[in-house]
Design brief:
Structural class: alpha/beta
Strand content: 15-25%
CATH class of the largest domain: Alpha Beta
Oligomer: single chain
CATH topology of the largest domain: Aminopeptidase
Distance between the termini: 36 Å
CATH architecture of the largest domain: 3-Layer(aba) Sandwich
Helix content: 25-40%
Number of strands: 20
CATH superfamily of the largest domain: Zn peptidases
Amino acid sequence: MNIILTTPSPASGDLIVPVLQSDSLADQLARLAPTLGLSTEVLQRDFKAEAKEVLTVYSQNGQKIYLLGLGNDPQEMDWLRTFRKFFFDQKRKLSAMLAIDLTSFDGNVVAGVVLGVRGGGYDLKLYQTDKPETPVFYTDAGILSLQVNPDQHTAAQEALTRAEAIAHTQLQMLDLMNAPANYKKPQTLADWAAASGNQFAYSVTVLDKAELERQKLGALLSVSQGSDVPPVLIIAEYKPEGVENPRKVGLVGKGVTFDTGGVSIKTSSNMHLMKSDMGGAAAVLGTVEVAAKLKLPIHVIGIVPSTENSTDGRSTKPGDVVTAYSGKTIEIIDTDAEGRVILADGLGYMVRNYQPDVLIDLATLTGSVIATLGYHAAGLFTPNDELAATLTQAANQTGERLWRLPVWDAYTEDIKSDVADVKNYSGKPFAGAISAAKFLEVFSEKHPAWAHLDIAGMAFADSEFGSQKNATGFGIRLLIAYLQLILAKKE
């Protein structure tokens, strides 16, 4: 399906008219009524423009027109979700030719629309053998015309370019996250990164198990001990050409491709969802690819420590002490707190080898953050107020929300070990997300602009795609918006 920008014109094929639930709704519907061949009274009675509300009518010339409610004051995430649900529900009814009338809106709304349209075509039935044919609209024959006013064309084109770059990457990340462990191993992530780097001209280096042992990434290796699947450390680096001294941003993402909990084994009820424990890796790998696609004038390094956390006779045991890449020792209290352990090596490797100006890690790390924030925001942890403010601005802009939680030194007591430099789990039934952040802070080596994002409640969610929780691709839009904000501030 191809998406093009057009100026207002009679649409061929189906037409979607988004409608705000504003004070002028009655007047808008009165203007639309003659075109739709309906009385104003009937239209005002039957359509209230509530979010995701759909009214389907046929004009006098037989054209199929969808009125799509936006609710009141929709933001980018609202546009995205409204259009995603509409296209997911209606995709088998749509003709190959479709137009969306955006002439009443700012050109920037195109981003949410395009992300929603692309998302609505996502197919979760990855391994079903009796899949139906792809709807004609989502084949190469499909054409979507976005009608915008001429004075909005520049803004709309910029939004379209950005959204298309993100959408195609995000759909691949959804496939990776939704894939089960027998289809997705650490090397699978490495292979994806290598292929992406070749396509979009950025460098990818993969440290295999032998190299991890040679360079002494003991924390990552300790988590992998119970699995027959070897771990990797993926380093994806995009460096813009022709940019003198670009800002350097380091991103570290947790890449546990399946998490049994190890010896501290999880209960079986939701263990099947632990194929999603590489949501941080998906955000990091996706962001590097999109930055390269958009040729952003910023240096981005993504590091993904990736492994399974399985269990057998070789597994790390509670009470064991392991040595991280940085040389610090970690007492393993709970083998199910493995994400922070592999991130310790990812952060240490980033700081010591790349010295980024900004250091951000992302991970599906704790159930504690879900208990605190539910499924509506990720936890943001940083002692840097400026970094917190810019990340929050990006979160508010994209709708991938963040809420800042403290990393006060008072919480350091929770990670003190009697026998090692730190322990990986406090053992207390409270402040679990904060103590995890304090653990990671140790391995940031007092980086002045470090932030940790605990995305456990946001990476997998209920959606229209399936009956169980499935991947959201959270973090890519957020991080790209963040990169663009710091570029704007530099200017």
